[in-house]
Amino acid sequence: MTPLLPAHDRVRRILEDLEAVRENLLALSDDIWQSIEHNDPRALEEGVEFKRRYNEKMAAFDALASELSDMVQGFTSVRLEQTERGSTENRDENERIVRELDREQPYTLDKDFTFRRPHGFVLDGQAATGITTWRRLYELVCQQLARRDLERFRALPENTAFISNRGHREFHTNAAELRSPMLVAEGIHAEINHSANALRDLLRELLPQFSIPLDQLRIYLREDRDAERQRE
What we know:
Radius of gyration: 19 Å
Structural class: alpha+beta
Number of domains: 2
Shape: globular
Helix content: 40-55%
Number of helices: 7
Oligomer: single chain
Largest sheet: 4 strands, antiparallel
Number of strands: 7
């Protein structure tokens, strides 16, 4: 007998909520860290210890959340990407998506995205909508940059702009070297264990590497889209 599965929309809302919790927890960590008085040695020491423990718990939660999401999507055939629309080949479809997004308020990379959620973007005239997470937005932007110049994208793992003072890399050819790797181009994995603002900052570094002005990436937020629909 075929199992009776929950309603498609309910499953999708749960999956989206799980992703939102992950992103909000990362944003909360950033908020707490920024609120610490870094000139106070005791406060700074306590803050470092908090971040260490928080990061450990977040890594465990992130792994479990990913496993749960993959299990649910696999069993129910509900995919978070199902609502996405974007076309690199159909010019008319791309222009339709751009016109739809242009009805909303666009944001650039100088916006504070803490506790905000995306649903679309336009990068250098190429649009995508129906996005549910900042991780997915970052992935799609990376893929677009790789299509634009794959050789330059393949050089990112050795680009010092994406290597921290402690040697942590944002891009790597070996997924095992990253905390939360995501395959974003042929043989290149990106670190995605970041809050919305941390991903924003990475995009601010990435676009100039491909000679794209920062204002050529316009981001559209979910609450703005929902408000627009309510007015209709």
